[in-house]
Every structure is written in C-alpha cells, then in structure tokens.
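Section 5: illustrative case.
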C-alpha cells in the first residue's frame, strides 16, 4: 500500500496535478502547488460542492469572509486557549510527533497482529487520557507504560508531552508588539458565525437556514505529512446550518446522510468509506462523527459533521457585547440558534479522488495506468486526435474541438502513435477520446473511445457533443 501512495504522489507531479511548493529552492515542507490538471480537478470538486450545498437548497446562502479577523474572534471561539495538540519529541532523532497519533499507531500495530483485546484496552486508556484535565501527563504515562518506541529511530527516549498551539501569528501594521498580534484563521467557520445577522438579514432568511463558505485556513501542524492530506495551508468547504434548539439531532442525522451521499455521487466506492464516531468531543459539540476514507496509508478523516450547540453564537455575544439572538416570527420566541456543521477538506477530497480513481490493469500483456474519475471531475472531458497530421484530418479534428469547447474542457493531441495518446489520456483520467481517421474524411463519422471499457463507437461527427453528454449523464462508478 505504501508503494501505491508513492505512485500517486509521483503521478501527481509527472502529469501536472500537484507540485512541491518552491521546489527549485528545495521545497517548503507541507506546502504544495496545484498544476494545470490539479487546478481543473480542484475547481470541479469545489463547484460540485457549491452546487450541492448552495444551488440545491433554497435556504442556504454563500459567504466569503476575510482570512484576517479581529483577534478577539479567536479568544471567543476558544482557539487562543484551547486549540492545542499534544506534542512529544524523540531525543534520539530530534523528530517531533503528536502524542495521540503515536498511541494510535501503536494500537494499529496491535490490531494488525490480531491482539484485539490489548488494542481495545490501550484505546480505552487513550480516550481516558485525552479527557482528563492533565491530558499531556496522562498521554506521556501511557506511552511509557506501553513502551512505545519512535517510529523513525526505534529509540525509547522521549521528552515530556507539551501542548502546542496550532495558530499562526502575524502582526498588523508596522509595529511588532503584542497589541498588534492577529492570526491567520485556523478554520473558516468563525467568519460565518460573526456574519450570522448580516447574512440572515440581507438574504431574508428564517431559521432553519445555512451559510456556506469555501476558503483557506492555516494550522501550524506538529507533523504535516502524507502529501496533501495534512498541510499547514489548506482549503475548507464548510456549511453552518442554524436551527432551533432541540431540533439539532434531526438536522445532524439528515446532514450526515446527505454528506455521505455527496461523496458517493462523486464516484467514490462505498467500500472505501465509513463512519467514525468521535471518542472525545470538542468543547463546543454535543455530537460529532467523521466520514473516513481508506487511503493507502490507512483510514482517515475526510469530512466532519458536528452538532455545535449554541456555543459559537453565545460566545460571540458575550465577547462582542452584541445580541446574536434570533426572533422567530412564527412562535414569537427569541433564542440563540443551535448549529449543525459540515466541514470537508478540499485538498483531502482531491487526494481521496486520486487514490480511489487510480487503477493498474493488464491489457495485452502491458500495464495500463488509468484514473477512473467521475466524468464531471476529470480535468479534461474529451481528447481529440487526428489519426495523422495530413489529409485534412487536423482541420477536421480542430473543428470538432471548437464545437466541444462550448460545453466541455477538451484537449487536442496529434503527437505520437494513437495508442500512446490513448495511454496518456488514460493516465490523466480523460473519459473519452475522439479520433478523426480516413473514414471520417469519407462519411464524416468518428470513433469515440471509452476510458473505462476501452470500447469504441463510430458515430456521426455532428453527434459527438450530445453523445458525450449522454454518456456523462449515464456514467456509474465501479462497485
């Protein structure tokens, strides 16, 4: 499985999906740039989320809040005091780890060895440690008791566990003093909460309603690794759904089902997705669960669904001194709404889509590498090839290309043998390839090759656009 992950990383660079940031200077750890294909894939995932959350609901509106916010926002939200991860250092290698992830790795190894009872015991001890007031010491004691060694050096020589705040600080204006300290936002949700009344009043919304946002967030992760799965600069797609207190569980269950269905609608195989209940609830939540995907490096979170109660609006009311209540015109009640949050990492979703789509298939004694994207996600929907660069074929192929560009993102390629061109498009996930050949010049028909089955249909050139749209609409993922 590790080899598969390295293959995905290598393909991402080689084909122009994702590059290491500042690579010519040796790169910057946990920072990545999206190349020509990556930009298209990312845009398509983003657009599908926006359509599902905003355009498909008459009571959800969009927002694009500033990355920089008043510093008291993060005091009210609890991030200044409580946005910490437990950090521990290996004295031998000088490498830093999250203490809870070290223990989780130990549990995974026990499960792999079929030591189920022991794994269950350690997991219960970890949950107890995370929920104590002195969590750092409790986690350290558990690491010592289990004699968990460093995964890199193999040493058993640890520092104490300390809490590490994940927010990036910067200075506002010319003076670098404490009064000018602000933060790069660690999440996008607070921009929604502080704009609760602004959006509600201008969009004329009544509870229940939602506010959706896509934007950058920043976290100074202790250990940022596994390619774009865990980065220090990343993009979130979040929706906060405001409801009447007491109705949060119904909304929580409904949104959980909707969000799982969205991932399945993107072509992700159901066997690769599962639910994971939170073992420790955040300070603002009364229920929380994650949608996890089975990456080559194991099951990990893609999206969180949280019932946040009225914590955020109540905290901002207290710190800002501004009323965050809602007046219900139907019941004549005043209350601070409860919130159900759906929060999905855009970059993690991109990685999931790449991992789930990648296949290696034997075709006539050779290995075919193919990305079986949902056609709506593929960077290019169609590639157009003239069989040869003469006899009017390039001109005809360009005419088809121009017609398709009115509806799809297309790629024109006339270089190399047509079989190699097919393989190049397979590897970047292009669902359909249209070839102009000698017969085209006689009867105006072309061949359309399907990426997944490699079957070819000959159809009239004037029908290509409608044919492809019909095939996109009819596409179904592998089980």
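Designed sequence:
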């Amino acid at each position: 499985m590790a080899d598969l992950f390295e293959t995905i990383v290598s393909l991402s660079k080689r084909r122009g999906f994702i590059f290491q940031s500042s690579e010519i200077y040796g790169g910057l750890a946990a920072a990545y740039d999206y190349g020509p294909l990556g930009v298209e894939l990312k845009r398509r995932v983003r657009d599908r989320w926006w359509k599902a959350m905003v355009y498909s609901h008459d009571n959800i509106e969009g927002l694009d809040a500033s990355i920089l916010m008043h510093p008291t926002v993060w005091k009210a939200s609890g991030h200044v005091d409580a946005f910490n991860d437990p950090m521990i250092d290996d004295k031998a290698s000088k490498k830093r780890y999250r203490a809870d992830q070290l223990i989780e790795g130990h549990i995974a190894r026990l499960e792999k060895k079929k030591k189920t009872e022991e794994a269950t015991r350690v997991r219960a001890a970890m949950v107890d440690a995370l929920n104590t007031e002195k969590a750092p010491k409790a986690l350290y004691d558990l690491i010592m008791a289990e004699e968990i060694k460093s995964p890199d050096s193999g040493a058993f020589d640890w520092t104490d566990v300390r809490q590490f705040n994940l927010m990036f600080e910067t200075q506002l204006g010319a003076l670098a003093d404490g009064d000018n300290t602000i933060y790069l936002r660690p999440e996008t949700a607070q921009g929604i909460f502080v704009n609760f009344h602004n959006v509600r009043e201008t969009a004329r919304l009544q509870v229940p309603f939602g506010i959706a946002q896509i934007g950058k967030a920043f976290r100074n992760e202790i250990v940022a690794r596994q390619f774009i799965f865990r980065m220090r600069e990343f993009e979130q797609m979040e929706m906060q759904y405001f409801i009447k207190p007491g109705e949060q569980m119904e909304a929580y269950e409904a949104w959980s089902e909707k969000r799982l269905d969205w991932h399945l609608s993107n072509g992700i195989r159901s066997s690769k997705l599962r639910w994971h209940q939170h073992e420790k609830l955040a300070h603002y939540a009364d229920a929380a669960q994650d949608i996890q995907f089975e990456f080559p490096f194991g099951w990990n979170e893609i999206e969180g669904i949280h019932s946040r109660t009225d914590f955020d609006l109540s905290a901002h009311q207290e710190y800002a001194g501004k009323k965050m209540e809602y007046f219900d015109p139907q019941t004549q009640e005043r209350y601070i709404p409860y919130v159900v949050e759906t929060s999905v990492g855009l970059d993690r979703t991109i990685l999931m889509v790449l991992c789930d789509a990648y296949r290696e298939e034997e075709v006539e004694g050779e290995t075919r590498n193919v990305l079986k994207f949902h056609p709506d996600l593929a960077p290019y929907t169609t590639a157009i090839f003239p069989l040869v660069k003469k006899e009017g074929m390039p001109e005809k192929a360009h005419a088809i290309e121009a017609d398709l560009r009115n509806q799809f993102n297309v790629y024109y390629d006339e270089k190399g043998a047509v079989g190699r061109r097919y393989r190049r498009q397979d590897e970047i996930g292009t669902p359909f390839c249209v070839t102009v050949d000698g017969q085209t010049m006689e009867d105006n028909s072309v061949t359309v090759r399907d990426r997944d089955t490699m079957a070819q249909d000959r159809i009239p050139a004037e029908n290509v656009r409608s044919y492809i749209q019909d095939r996109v609409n009819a596409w179904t993922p592998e089980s």
